[in-house]
Write a structure and sequence with these properties.
It is built from 14 helices and 18 strands. Strand 1, helix 1 and strand 2 (about 35-45) form a beta-alpha-beta unit. Helix 1 runs parallel beside helix 11 (about 310-325), helix 2 packs across helix 11 and helix 11 packs antiparallel against helix 12. The strands form 4 sheets. The protein has a 7-stranded mixed β-sheet. Strands 7-2-1-11-18-17 form a 6-stranded mixed β-sheet, sandwiched between helices. A 3-stranded antiparallel β-sheet has the order 8-9-10. The protein has about 400 residues and is of the alpha/beta class. Helices cover about 35% and strands about 25% of the residues. The chain has a domain at about 10-80 and about 115-185 and about 280-355: FAD/NAD(P)-binding domain (3-Layer(bba) Sandwich), CATH 3.50.50.60. The structure holds flavin-adenine dinucleotide (FAD). Flavin-adenine dinucleotide binds near residues 49, 172, 297 and 311. GO terms for molecular function: monooxygenase activity. Keywords: Monooxygenase, Oxidoreductase. InterPro entries: FAD-bd, FAD/NAD-bd_sf, FAD_aromatic-hydroxylase.
Length: about 400
């Protein structure tokens, strides 16, 4: 069992730059500060953001948040979800996924959170000793046996004992230290987009439900949020990995022919900063560290939305890294222990995610019918055992025993 927040001891360990104030970066900053490092976080965005869609927060993420005494705060910002309703183009219910069953299978340790809310709570939990500089990135990295010299995008130079790239799937630190992204990114043949908007008429139509429309190779979801807004997401299959210059134009082209509430949803898409759009991809890297530079979260272990849990695993990875850094021995050895612990778990979850693809985002009407039939059978008494292996798949915590 890991250390609770109150059991930590204070000692000066050295200084670290964490590039990226997302889920992994903020979690790591909290733990590194806690165990006595001087922490500087760099974030390319100008501040905290609300973009993205709802995440199932469970397993490793839940365990780490509990050790940070954050669960109570996260419970307050969770979204109320009891089921996910699949509808057809007329808006009629065709099947549903019982979120309560999922919650039971996780021993009630599951929260439906907006990514932005999780980020905000992690940020609020940081002590004043952690410095965050927004609007900045890393331009140059040089290292020797004693230190890493980092040149920031404003020209400032910093010398630290450790540099961590927590800057997401398109990591700049990874590019500078390990090489071009194309060597490490496994494109999974889908693109995804998500945005948050306001619309009273759509809110009434959803009637409080999380609804999904699936047609072959395309899925659109929409759900009401606690604060009166709505969130929507789109996932479609495409062989073209390249991210389009205008995500909204692409969504309009790809989904403009569909009924249900899709035309109204698309009217709210205006290429402003608040749209999240990206390839669905995984990161596979032969080594996660080089000397005094290491990676955490999606930068080295992205599992993709097919596997879910990206944010939970990012918190798990950040926790394991901080705990392994407390061990004795040269820093390179401690970083190796972090990687050896994490990598097999991540590889398993990535493979499970790839296997789940055709059921999550069915490629044909036949796959959609099989999915809906299985979901219907699961509603009958005793039928839920059908779904248990799927809902439990790959959700083991990476922080067990650490
Ligand atoms: C705005 C946003 C919306 C997202 N929405 C979704 C979603 O809807 N669905 C989904 O499956 N996943 C989404 N993700 C990814 C998901 O949150 C991550 O898979 C998961 O949380 C892993 O966390 P991470 O901290 O490793 O990476 P991220 O959460 O991606 O965090 C990386 C952080 O590094 C920052 N950063 C990036 N480049 C640089 C740079 N060069 N220099 C400094 N900082 C940099 C980013 O702004 C971000 O704050 C989103 C990520 C972001 C940033």
């Amino acid at each position: 069992m890991g250390n609770s927040a109150t059991e930590e001891t204070q000692q000066t360990e050295g200084s670290v730059i964490i590039c990226g104030a997302g889920i992994a970066g903020l979690t790591l900053a909290w733990w590194m500060d806690r165990i006595g490092w001087d922490v500087l976080v760099l974030e390319i965005a100008s501040g905290l953001r609300d973009e993205g869609y709802m995440i199932d927060f469970l397993s490793s993420g839940y365990d780490v948040a509990e050790r940070m005494d954050l669960i109570h705060r996260l419970e307050e910002v969770q979204q109320p979800v009891s089921e996910v309703v699949n509808v057809n183009e007329n808006g009629e219910r065709v099947s549903e996924m019982d979120y309560e069953l999922f919650r039971q299978l996780q021993n009630e340790r599951l929260l439906a959170l907006m990514r932005g809310d999780l980020e905000r709570e992690l940020h609020a939990a940081l002590s004043d000793d952690v410095e965050i500089r927004y609007g900045l990135t890393v331009d140059e990295v040089q290292q020797d046996e004693q230190a890493v010299d980092v040149t920031l995008s404003d020209g400032t130079r910093e010398s630290v004992e450790l540099l961590v790239g927590a800057d997401g799937i398109h990591s700049r630190v990874r590019e500078l230290v390990f090489g071009d992204e194309s060597q490490y990114l496994r494109y999974l043949n889908y693109h995804t987009g998500a945005f948050i908007f306001e619309d009273e008429s759509i809110r009434r139509k959803l009637d409080g439900q999380f609804q999904n429309l699936t047609v072959p190779n395309r899925t659109i979801g929409c759900y009401p949020l606690q604060d009166g807004t709505l969130a929507t997401f789109f996932v479609h299959r495409t062989p073209n990995a390249e991210r389009p210059p205008s995500p909204c134009q692409t969504l309009k082209q790809r989904y403009g022919d569909l009924d249900w509430i899709v035309p109204e949803l698309l009217e709210h898409c205006t290429d402003v900063d608040s749209i999240y759009y990206d390839q669905v991809a995984q990161i596979e890297l032969p080594r996660w560290s080089k000397g005094r530079v290491t990676l955490v979260g999606d930068a080295c272990q992205a599992v993709s939305l097919l596997a879910g849990q990206g944010a939970s695993l990012a918190m798990g990875g950040a926790y394991v890294l901080a705990q392994k850094l407390r061990d004795d021995g040269p820093i390179e050895e401690r970083l190796n222990r972090y990687e050896s612990h994490m990598k097999p778990e991540i590889q398993e979850k990535q493979a499970a995610g790839r296997r789940a693809a055709k059921w999550l985002f069915p490629p044909s009407q036949w796959h959609i019918t099989v999915r809906d039939t299985a979901l219907k059978v699961a509603r009958y008494p005793g039928g839920s055992h059908l779904l248990k292996p799927v809902l439990k798949m790959g959700t083991e915590s990476v922080v067990n025993g650490i």
